[in-house]
Amino acid sequence: MARTVLGLFAAATGSLCSPALGQDGPPASVSLDQSPTVEGIDQGGAVMDAPFIGPPDPRKEHRNEIVVTAPCSASAGQGLISGSYILDEERSDHVMQALNSAVDGMSPSIARPSFARRLRKAGAPAYAIRISIAAGRFWIKNDAKQEIVVWTSGESIEWSQEDGQVFDVSAQVNGEAISLTFRAADSERTTVYRSDGQQLVTETTIISPLLSTPIRYKVVYNRAS
Q1: What span, in angstroms and rounded, lies between the C-alpha atoms of 14 and 65?
Q2: Which of helix, strand or coil describes residue 168?
Q3: What's residue 79's pLDDT?
Q4: What would the pLDDT profile of 10-69 be if each residue is shown by its tens digit?
Q5: Which of 6, 118, 121, 134 is such that its CA lies 20 to 30 A from the CA of 12?
Q6: Rounded alpha-carbon distances, angstroms, from residue 184 to 10, 112, 160, 169, 181
Q7: What sign for the dihedral angle of Cα 23, 224, 30, 203?
Q8: HEC profile of 44-112
């Protein structure tokens, strides 16, 4: 009975702050190569009888989970607001232009074509993002990519992108923001996530011995309604 009352209160007020895991629900349906469509993002209801509230344990496998995110407020001790967000192209930097300019500035080498392809694939901004922070864990899902769940203490996990690229991924709390770092053999990409009103602002820096200078860009997302 207590759980049912909590669920009804959360559905009415949007006060349940972390996504409930292990329940069926329509994920974001987005492709960077197609006209974006979003189905089922932030439906506005709490999920009843969820076995765990908050991000899953990053030390366990969760490859096939579907996550439903309820509207929420700032997480305890953090200024980052959990929820679902959609890309705001007008307020964002031209990311692909920045990536292409960096590739054009690279010295000719046998590694350049492969590095450029991987850089564009990994650095392209997501259209739809869902995030949550709770119990010392940071959970993020970008478009159709596999979700990432890491501790915010800096402990790294191994994560594979859909094209086979493998990264060591770690997260760190920086005041009211969270930084997420992807380390590969020849590059490192760090994105800082912070909330600004109803927007999620991300600032990314990419460094590599193959690049003459670091790549930096900002991407802005609006809270999904």
Answers
A1: 23
A2: strand
A3: 79
A4: 333 333 343 333 334 433 333 333 333 333 333 333 333 333 334 555 555 444 332 333
A5: 134
A6: 41, 15, 11, 9, 10
A7: negative
A8: CCCCCCCCCECCCCCCCCCCCCCEECCCCCECCCCCCECEEEEECCCCCCCHHHHHHHHHHCCCCCCCH
Is residue 146 within 8 Å of residue 126, measured between CB atoms? Answer: no
Residues in the chain: 225
Burial group, residue 94, by CB count within 10 angstroms (0-12, 13-18, 19+): exposed
In order of their start, the domains of the chain are: 2-223 (2.40.128.20)
Q: Which residue type is seen at 105?
A: G
Going by the DSSP 8-state scheme, the letter that residue 134 receives in this structure is E
What are the residues facing 68 on neighbouring strands?
20
